[in-house]
Amino acid sequence: MSSPLPAGRRTFLAAAGLTALAAGTAGTAGAGTAVAADTAVSDNVAGSGWRPDPDRRSFTVVVMPDTQYLFDGASINPEPVEASLRHVLDRARDENIVFLSHLGDLVENGRQEEFAPLSEVFELLDHRRAGYSVLAGNHDIVSSTDDQRGPSPYLDAFGPRRMRRLPTFGGASPDGYNTYHLFRAAGRDWLVLALDWRMSAAGFAWANKVVAQHPKSPVILTTHDLVYGENPGDEARLSPYGQRLWDELIAGNDQIFLTLNGHYWPAARTTRTNDAGHDVHLHLTNYQDRYFGGSAMIRLYRFDLDRNTIDVSTLSPWQLARAARDKANALALQETELTGPEDRFSVAIDFEKRFAGFAPVPPRSSRPAHRMLVPGTVAYWRFDTGNADGAPAAETLRVPDLSGHGNDLTRGAVPGSPADALRWSAEHHPDQPGHGSLYFDGNKRPLRGAFLQTVKGAPLSTATFRSGYTVEAFFKLPADWSGSQHAWSGILSRQGTLAAAGKTGDPDEPVATLSLSDGHALQWAAAPLNQKSLVSNWGHELPLDHWWHVAVVNDGRSTTMYVDGCPVARNPATATNGLTTLGLSWLLGGYEYGGVLDQLFHGWIGDVRVAERALPVGAFMNA
User: Fold this and answer.
1) In whole angstroms, what is the distance from residue 412 CA to residue 348 CA?
2) How many CB atoms lie under 10 A from the CB of residue 195?
3) Contact of 548 with 468, CB cutoff 8 Å
4) Residue in 156, 75, 68, 159 with CA at minimum distance from that of residue 105
5) How far apart are CA 138 and CA 317, in angstroms?
């Protein structure tokens, strides 16, 4: 605990610590501290176990800051903490809660009589073998001492003897005041350091060694005193002891990406750059200054590795429950959930990029073409033939159909287009089988660009796909893509107009095209054999400068578009069978309107595969 108010007082506290336990302190404050019978912690909590999903790419870490005012001498109030722990256990499966960290100042005076009821409440987690850590704050021990202080009621209640029973416990420093913990989430091991109020030189050496012994694990550092904020909304700053932690432990260990501490209020946060040039997020959370000593507020850190985001929220399960039973008073109603900018926020982290310095994700290797030739494949093109990155594609270019069906591609171009309107590229989708692509530098005004087309007599030109089809491609739109210059450019299209095919609708539209709207949304517009006009599947607006995979799958009855293996919203329920053909070529990187090539692709196209049946979603990417 440390009030954020007068700067002189905070400076004094940060430098010297507020002694919570005088050397000769003793007392008999334990009278009447037993947990009430109607909330006893031993009721039916054992048996179901703690089983977070270790591979799910979203998970939650729970943080509980200073609870000292709930365990203060003769004033003992375990119910808020119990409500928070039960909330965690009740929602562990749904939220994939993997760990809980207490940030110290568990009790006010560091006495055994205060630790006893809190220790009993934490048996809720022990009985379920839930992963958690605690650490000593300045009120839990003699604050003028460091981790070499020796035995204490804190160690008796929450020392390594207790922790080693938990599946997440990794080890402790010889003095017992510093511990580390490991949990598995999103397919990797994560390390939590739980560090004493004041570490000695031996403590710092131990912590650095632990990090070094787990070189590929991201690290969350928890301690009681690290950053503070002057006033609500202020950016957090390092305390004097926090500066030492930064200099001797955090800055030089790139694995430490997030720090959590209590002690001060109000809540605050900041970001600093470590020695490796990477961000470290430093967060202060503490609510002891609020009504009912903070009501055992917990902060939920919801990690989402698919969204590259940590969503943070703060609530008091105890006050929420009281409000739901209409038992909350006017002050309690303000404590159910905190929604200010320092209590509810999101942190953007590109986890793969942030952790690449110590745990790089190896890129997928290329896969041989023959593995992509699943039954039903009628055309397969890839562009990883070893040509120099950026080299123009020759006018005589012929791209073989690796399926062996003779649907080779040859180069064409708008007259007057530069030689490098089509060029080789080493870029590719990370899950693309072939490690290479072609860059199509198409443009509308002035009209320029190159394209590929199937050779005369290619079997694909006359295919009707009555039993179904799959059309899939990897592609990327550059940052300079614009609707005015590149709208409706085709990734893959079939020559021949609706009018020539005897279909209704816009007579100049081609009979089939996979193209991009002026808002860079995918459209598959095709004239089925059993319909009089086009039927369209629409995707969403795609971010630029990003590789995508698109698959259009028809099972002989209906057609579904998938982007990165996910079905789009606008997949019509219209019955669709086969594809109309006039026996003309397919175009890669081009689109004809009214028989005139005027919609040329701008961007990269990687592997393209066509099959005469519906293929499993994601098979191309996951092969």
Assistant:
1) 44
2) 30
3) no
4) 68
5) 26
CA distance 601 to 487: 9
Phi-psi region of 569 (alpha: psi -120 to 50; beta: other; left: phi over 0): alpha
Phi, psi (rounded to 5 degrees) for 126:
-60, -45
User: What does the alpha-carbon distance between residue 489 and residue 514 come to, in Å, rounded to a whole number?
Assistant: 9
Q: Residue 10 — very low, low, confident or very high, per pLDDT cuts 50/70/90?
A: very low
Give the span between the Cα atoms of 425 and 386, in whole angstroms.
10
- What whole-number distance in Å separates Cα of residue 516 and Cα of residue 538? 10
How far is Cα 190 from Cα 552, in angstroms, rounded to an integer? 39
Q: Tokens for 415? A: 């007259």
Closest CA to 257 of 280, 234, 277: 280
pLDDT at residue 49 greater than cutoff 90: no
How many whole angstroms separate alpha carbon 358 and alpha carbon 121?
A: 38
CA distance 324 to 333: 10
Q: Are 318 and 333 in contact (CB under 8 A)?
A: no
Answer whether 302's CB lies under 8 Å from 293's CB.
no
Q: Which residues partner with 437 through β-bridges?
A: 425
Q: Do the beta carbons of residue 452 and residue 424 sit within 8 Å?
A: no
φ, ψ dihedrals at 102, nearest 5°: -95, 140
Record the pTM.
Answer: 0.81
Judge contact between 476 and 486, C-beta under 8 A: no
> CA-CA distance, 2 to 66, in Å (whole number)?
10
Residue 353's φ and ψ, nearest 5 degrees, are -70, -45
Please list the residues that pair with 425 across neighbouring strands: 437
Distances (CA, A) of 402 to 373, 465, 550, 587, 611: 8, 20, 20, 17, 13
Backbone angles phi, psi at 29, to 5 degrees: -75, 0
Contact 279/254 with Cβ under 8 angstroms? no
- DSSP conformation class of 543: P
The two three-digit tokens of residue 77, written as one number: 């109030």
pLDDT 10s digits, 129-169: 999 999 999 999 999 999 999 999 999 999 999 999 999 99
Question: Torsion angle of alpha carbons 395, 401, 402, 406, nearest 10°?
Answer: -130
> Tens of pLDDT along 432-442?
999 999 999 99
Give the ranges where 462-618 is alpha helix by DSSP (H): 483-486
- List, in sequence order, the alpha helices (H) in 476-575: 483-486
**Which residues pair with residue 72 across a beta bridge?**
75
- The larger pLDDT score, comparing residue 42 to residue 67, is at 67
User: What is the Cα 441 distance to its own chain's centre?
Assistant: 33
Question: Rounded CA gap, 585 and 583, in Å?
Answer: 7
57 CB neighbour count, 10 Å cutoff? 15
DSSP element (H, E) containing 156: helix 153-158
Among residues 32, 29, 40, which one has the least CA distance to residue 121? Answer: 40
CA distance 113 to 228: 30
In the DSSP assignment, the letter for residue 220 is: E
